[in-house]
């Protein structure tokens, strides 16, 4: 067993695998800018993380600034532990604000200092909270000791389930805490600002993040009391849930409760539900020493959640938020302890992100649901080795290749338009069989506005193998101009890739200031070549490129 684990670790940390040389046939993709599919809703402009106190660390502030700068709309940020008791220090899967305690007589003491610092950091950058009502303050916990966990990667995940994870021992005090927090937020940031936020109750209460004899009914009660408190403080506030880990019976029963059952707090029928949220994850594994992604599992979980929303006619136009939408479930599990997570540093994470976000539009449309957000659960981790394989967007203040996918998406505007291709797989096909073996997903997401067409193109495969890829001929029809200006952005081994640059340096454990500056430069979104002018023929522009496996391109045509 030890020998097998060692082999997996070596495979995870080895240079990227290269496939045998081949001469693949040309792949053709066609964009029809006259065929609109729906708005280019910025579902990608949502981010989240477990450790809220990273927000105010220097690297956290830098990354938030970079995220805010790439988006044409306000970015929503979701964080755990916003109500947890503690001194505000950070650790893996831990954080605290100490917003609630009690004096010697058991009377509430509210302290908004730390939470204000976190939310101020968002607001200063034009961001908005997806404000999580959780977790349980120590003074309200039903089982307060032990309260704080000290989990580390490689130890059982269940060790985090300590006193923060219980329902309140006093629902009146719990409700008043929520009321006071919302009321304070309105006083500090203004009613109009707080009306633009989303409030949610807890995280993954379906048998994991909540300890209770009857977890389901206890959560429903927590939600009812919290929702009532939010609406009393600000009737126009938006609150929803249940942010279940999977879209199953728990979520179905929650929707039924909110729509038709008796409210625990008010005694009336029904509970406010301004949006529905659930989580969906993939399932990577190591196969013959190579990481293989599980996009099929990710899409299956997405579709199961959309199907539950579709089941209720009352939810036809209610916003849906995928509260965590990721290749797997543990951002803080690095590749040293979890070799299957070695995809996170390089271009596989980038191509997976491009291909999966693009299909989320189609999965939602197929079920007729109003998808407004898909939270990428990755941020940054302080005090960790360079490129340690955590699911993060940056390492030690240097952005990783995956962040450049979001920079690309930030340049796409207007309406999504039709794309067809001879090597593209629709969401249903990937959900059924993944992208494995001889299947290679070379496809695109395209959008247009009054004076531009943007086309995001990727060459994705579930296996973490890099090869020269395929020649691609991209035809963009429906351009109302005789010529266009084109800029071609690329993520591959030579562009927009700080990880490849770090490896070329020899993977230094402690890069020099000059090396850090070089890594910062390599982390920026790069162009494949200088801007160019293309002539159109009957309103069609044609672009030819070589697209390596796991590479992502953005073509921005303006006229």
From TrEMBL:
InterPro entries to which the protein is assigned, alphabetical: GH, GH39_cat, Glyco_hydro_39, Glycosyl_Hydrolase_39
UniProt KW Signal keyword: yes
Domain of life: Bacteria
Keyword line: Glycosidase, Hydrolase, Signal
Domain Glycosyl hydrolases family 39 N-terminal catalytic: 97-524
Signal sequence extent: 1-18
Transmembrane feature ranges: none
Family: Belongs to the glycosyl hydrolase 39 family.
Protein name (record): Glycosyl hydrolases family 39 N-terminal catalytic domain-containing protein
Natural source organism: Telluria mixta
């Amino acid at each position: 067993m030890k020998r097998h684990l060692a082999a997996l670790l070596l495979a995870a940390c080895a240079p990227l695998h290269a496939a045998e040389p081949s001469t693949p046939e040309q792949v053709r993709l066609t964009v029809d800018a006259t065929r609109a599919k729906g708005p280019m809703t910025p579902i990608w402009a949502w981010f989240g993380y477990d450790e809220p106190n990273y927000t105010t660390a220097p690297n956290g502030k830098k990354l938030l600034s970079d995220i805010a700068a790439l988006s044409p709309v306000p970015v929503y940020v979701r964080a755990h532990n916003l109500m947890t008791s503690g001194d505000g220090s950070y650790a893996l899967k831990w954080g605290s604000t100490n917003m609630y305690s009690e004096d010697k007589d058991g009377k509430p003491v509210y302290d908004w200092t730390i939470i204000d610092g976190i939310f101020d950091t968002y607001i200063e950058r034009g961001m908005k909270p997806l404000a999580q009502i959780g977790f349980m303050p120590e003074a309200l916990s039903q089982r307060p000791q032990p309260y704080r966990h000290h989990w580390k990667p490689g130890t059982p995940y269940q060790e985090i389930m300590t006193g923060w994870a219980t329902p309140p021992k006093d629902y009146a005090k719990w409700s008043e805490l929520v009321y006071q927090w919302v009321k304070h937020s309105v006083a500090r940031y203004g009613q109009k600002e707080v009306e633009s936020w989303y409030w949610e109750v807890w995280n993954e209460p379906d048998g994991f993040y909540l300890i209770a004899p009857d977890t389901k009914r206890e959560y429903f009660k927590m939600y009812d009391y919290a929702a009532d408190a939010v609406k009393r403080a600000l009737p126009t506030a938006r609150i929803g849930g249940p942010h279940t880990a999977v879209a199953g019976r728990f979520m179905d029963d929650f929707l039924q409760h909110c729509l038709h059952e008796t409210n625990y707090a008010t005694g009336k029928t029904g509970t406010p539900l301004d949006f529905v949220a659930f989580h969906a994850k993939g399932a990577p594994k190591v196969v013959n020493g190579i990481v293989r992604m599980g996009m099929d599992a990710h899409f299956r979980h997405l579709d199961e959640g959309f199907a539950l929303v579709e089941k209720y006619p009352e939810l036809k136009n209610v916003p849906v938020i995928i509260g965590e939408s990721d290749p797997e479930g543990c951002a803080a599990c690095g590749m040293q302890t979890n070799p299957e997570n070695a995809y996170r540093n390089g271009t596989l994470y980038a191509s997976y992100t491009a291909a999966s976000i693009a299909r989320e539009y189609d999965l939602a449309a197929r079920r007729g649901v109003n998808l407004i957000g898909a939270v990428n659960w990755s941020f940054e981790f302080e005090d960790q080795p360079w490129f340690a394989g955590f699911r993060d967007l940056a390492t030690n203040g240097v952005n990783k290749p995956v962040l450049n996918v979001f920079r690309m998406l930030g340049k796409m505007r207007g309406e999504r338009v039709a794309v067809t291709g001879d090597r593209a797989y629709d969401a249903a096909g990937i959900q059924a069989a993944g992208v494995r073996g001889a299947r290679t997903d070379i496809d695109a997401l395209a959008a247009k506005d009054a004076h531009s067409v943007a086309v995001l193109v990727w060459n994705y495969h579930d296996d973490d193998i890099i090869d020269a890829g395929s020649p691609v001929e991209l035809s963009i029809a429906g351009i109302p101009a005789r010529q266009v200006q084109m800029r071609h952005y690329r993520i591959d081994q030579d562009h927009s890739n700080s990880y490849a640059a770090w490896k070329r340096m020899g993977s230094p454990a402690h890069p020099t200031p000059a090396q850090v500056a070089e890594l910062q430069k390599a982390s920026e979104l790069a162009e494949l070549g200088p801007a160019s002018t293309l002539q159109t023929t009957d309103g069609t522009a044609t672009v030819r490129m070589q697209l390596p496996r796991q590479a992502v391109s953005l073509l921005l045509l303006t006229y």
